[in-house]
Automatic annotation (TrEMBL):
Residues 65-84 are annotated as: Disordered. It comes from Pogonophryne albipinna. Residues 74-84 have a biased composition (Polar residues). This is Cilia- and flagella-associated protein 299. May be involved in spermatogenesis. It holds the Pfam family DUF4464. It comes from the Eukaryota. Keywords: Cytoplasm, Nucleus. It is found in: Cytoplasm; Nucleus. The lineage of its organism: Eukaryota, Metazoa, Chordata, Craniata, Vertebrata.
Amino acid sequence: MEYCTAARVNDSVTQFKVYEDYLDSKVKPMDLFYLKSRELARKLVEHGHKGTVLSREEFEEKKAAAQAAQAAKSNTFYSRSRPM
């Protein structure tokens, strides 16, 4: 069960290039309508007013870990597929 949750978090983190894109994914069109500012909407999300979100540090750590795991996985695949 814990593995599934970690895998979902890693998948959700890797689909975003930067932390701001991650925050933007939590902002709804209605938020922008009323707030009139994407920056303000991001700050509200970052401070937890739209539910639980990762901090910038947590996002960067999880993204780096997911990229390292993906690199290790591709290196393992590559080393197994090479003829000796």
